């Protein structure tokens, strides 16, 4: 069985990697798909190509994982790829309520199933938004993201990290 793990991955976090690694043990093949929306152009920290590069590096050790992107409805992508299983990670009950609605819609309009994988407790508080915020102040995000994301964040906020390093001596 093949599955798709969609998201914006801006950037991919350790929580995403936890869900993805576990999904790669359950499914024969998993495609991590960066969903991009033209209306959100310029609202991401990393552009599409940067996110794809980060994902390729972060998932290189997972032989049954591929990286792709798509602009449009996820169900259209699923149809094009002839896949019928969506992987979604959950951190908390609040995620479930939102994801349940999306899962029902995807099933209704695209005849696809959604499999929920709970993120490990240690990652239940980590989100891409929080990681970007911490990195924007030069904070230590090394445990919250894979190396590829950490390096990309340090490059994006190089001045902040350099200033913070100089202050801390």
Automatic annotation (TrEMBL):
Biological or metabolic pathway of the protein: Cofactor biosynthesis; coenzyme A biosynthesis; CoA from (R)-pantothenate: step 4/5
Binding site for substrate: 8, 40, 74, 88
Protein location: Cytoplasm
Residues marked Transition state stabilizer (site): 16
Complex formation: Homohexamer.
Role noted for this protein: Reversibly transfers an adenylyl group from ATP to 4'-phosphopantetheine, yielding dephospho-CoA (dPCoA) and pyrophosphate.
UniProt protein name: Phosphopantetheine adenylyltransferase
Organism whose genome encodes this protein: Deinococcus aerius
